[in-house]
Request: fold
Amino acid sequence: MHIVVCIKQVPDSAQIRVHPVTNTIMRQGVPAIVNPYDLFSLEEALRLKDVHGGRVTVITMGPPQAEAALRKCIAFGADEAILVTDRAFAGADTLATSYALASAITQIGKDQAVDMVFAGKQTIDGDTAQVGPGIAKRMDLQLLTYVSQVDALDLMTRTVRVQRRAEGGVQVLTTKLPCLVTMLEGSNEMRFASMDNMFRAARYQLKVWDRVAAGIDDVGKIGLKGSPTVVSKVFAPQARTQRAEIIDTESGEPRDIALTLLSKLFTQHPKLGEAISKRAT
Amino acid sequence: MAEKFDAIVVGAGPSGNAAAYTLAKSGLKVLQLERGEYPGSKNVQGAILYADALERIIPDFREDAPLERHIIEQRMWVLDDASFIGSHYRSDDFNKPPHNRYTIIRAQFDKWFSQKAQEAGVLLICETTVTDLIMDGTQVIGVRTDRLGGSIYADVVILADGVNSMLARKAGFRPELNPGDVALAVKEIHFMPEETIASRFNVSGDAGVVIEMIGKITKGMMGTGFLYTNKESLTIGVGCMLSDFKKQKISPNRLLEEMKSHPSIRPLIEGGEMKEYAAHLIPEGGYKAIPRIYGEGWLIAGDSGMFVNAVHREGSNLAMTTGRIAAETVIELAAQGKACSTKNLAAYRAKLDQSFVMKDMKKYQNLPDILHRNPQFLTTYPELLNQAAHIMLKVDGVDKKSKEKQIRSNFAHRRSLFGLVGDAYKMWRAFE
Reply:
């Protein structure tokens, strides 16, 4: 059983500021973390390994400093980590990224066939949720997104049954391996690494692959060249100037307070008032 | 299997990093444990870096350390409610490299310092809390962590775990913190464009200004306020003895809010956008509060050993120096094949006694007591000094001799002649 988990190092978006003058994102001093959604996928992969044996390989495409994020995954219990890094990847959008990762995972598979690929539901910095499905499409893997639980994995019949969050309910799906899974947040809780794994992570020599090692020949499909996405404008969202209004409830009957509230609502939203009175008549 | 190291350093602040770096540089096998997510993630300081202490550890630190501004001007303000009287010392000599002092952002600086230690060979493990010391009788032989299989062994353990030092307290090396021996400081970092800082503080390039403040801002509590210029931000904060906060029932953040609205301070920070808010305890008990700092297989360095010179606002340099000297003591013993016994580690204390660390700590040993018993130094005198300046500088047709008489009588009225002489003597004793 060989599971590959795709992760991304992201700036902790809770701590990001926009430069008040230049309107650019101030990354200085903002801690880099493993994309939180990826951790649910990593933990699920580790649990499958605990039960079925095998190994977990973690992969990321990113700058050299993404090493820290991979090291963290080793501490949690991943067996191997591969950093795919090359200047040629700079400026990649989700299309180019999924191409590069699919290519790298194919290379990993040459060493030991990959049974499952896990990816985060989405990242907290890009929020597109496109890279996981993109990899599945390119590698022709069964795609299971928004999975809340992996119910059963049968390595004999090479099938997996999962629960998938869907609009208005839960789908129970069975599919063939190999497949790609993105886990829903909150579906599990990341384990607390053991001291041995902390030592292993601190000393681990991770594999660093450049474009060629990742099996990519066509530079037109990676980096800026392979990215059709155009960023037309970047701006900081403006804080709402409108303040909440407090209605004094100390004095007056509930009926009066309700009327005050309604009259305020209808004054501010005249159309709402019209619609309601129309329905009433 | 439990691992064995030559030394374990607990904590990745200035003293821990100084110790770990120095030990690893000499070839010893060092493990450093830090409870924060990364070195600097939990560390708080004003923060001023005194170059000398770091230079003795990493001589060429200026090449790549993340420094904000070098300080060319020091202002000392004594504040009344609506005014301040003060002295400014600015020298172009401070503009000439190598610079003497810098403002730093600790989250970045500590990361850099730790990186240097790791490059020197330190094995750093973060997000791991040391919960206990492993003892063999009275001898410390290792540490236990909060992780599964978390026992690790070493010939010596250096406790550089900061002001609260749970470990030293748990092991009985140090008593419970006394609220009269620690200050609680709060600070904010306000973003401000470089050009605004340059024009507001009359500096250019990487030059910067620090303002240290005493007086009515601390409402009679023993403490100081400060304002430092960073590259693209200002740090403003205030700290007072924890026991005073308790007694006066004033919240530290309210104290800082009021300080920020002082008419002499408000214009300096106006327009800034608050980026960060932090609070920390500072061990200000002085010489008398220093616990036992060495024993069978263990040493204490930095804040954990209460090494802070509150009068001169020095702490991180004492932390680095004690960390370095602790490491050097261990290195010497290792080189001679001697054990890290109480008797042998006594050399650590002896070296500190010979250094500026203990000499400075000893010099001001009576100051905390004197200021504590004489709050007039922080309340009445700032008011009198400001009044005096106001009387002398206001041109209102009153002759200067009468003005002088008025000032004299104000002083005598508030403190009495006897009190004035007594206060002068006390101050002389404190700084002697």
In short: The CA atoms of residues 122 and 250 of chain B lie 43 Å apart. DSSP finds 14 helices and 17 strands in chain B. The mean pLDDT of chain B is 93. Chain B touches chain A through 22 residues (CB under 8 Å).
